[in-house]
Amino acid sequence: FYPNQNMSRYDFTKALVSMFYATDNNAVCTFSDVDKKNSYYPFVATAQSMDMAKPTEENKFGGNEPVTNEYMLMICGKILAEKKGYKFPENYVDYLNLTDKTEITATAMPYIAVAVQCGLAQNNGALKPQDAVTKEKCAQILYKTFTLLYDTSPVTTSFSAILEVDDQNPKINDL
Question: Coil, helix or strand for 49?
Fold first, then answer.
């Protein structure tokens, strides 16, 4: 898994389609840098057909490039807005209390506001929209998006329910 490595756009798109959509094997990808023989092709094509894959530059997907905070939060916010009906905050530009919100692209801004509103990111300090996202952070955000979309409770194990938490000496309760 290598959680501290950057998440590629290919892997993010595959996870996104696998979690939130059914792969459409008839979908067509028009990005010039994604060949039909590429194992990620069906995922990118599906995401593109759902308007969930955005180019990095003129007609290129940039699959091996890292996912940025902006891209990840924009796509997750878009999923929540379209699939669950989350609304854009009124005057979403003023809503965002981020020190670097001027670095967020105009097309991403409303969806990032939804993501922030839903708790996928903090609404203070710096978002660092163009920074790469690690696999660990991406997994956390995708999991949070999934729980918001499908109203699931956080996962607990039977072990965590019987563990007595004591800062000095954790122990298992009698069953």
Answer: helix
Q: DSSP string covering 65-123, please?
A: SBPBHHHHHHHHHHHIIIII-PPPPTTHHHH---TTGGGS-TTTHHHHHHHHHTTSS-S
User: What are the DSSP calls for 142-167, one per residue?
Assistant: HHHHHHHHHTPPPP--HHHHHEEP-S
Amino acid at the residue 122:
Q
Residue 175 is predicted with a pLDDT of: 46
* Residue bearing tokens 């840098």: 33
**Looking at this protein, which amino acid is placed at residue 135?**
K
Structure tokens at 160: 């965590």
Residue 145 token pair? 């998006």
Residues 45-74 have pLDDT tens digits of: 999 999 999 999 889 999 999 999 999 999
Measure the CA angle with vertex 70, ends 67 and 72; round to 5°. 50
- What is this structure's pTM? 0.84
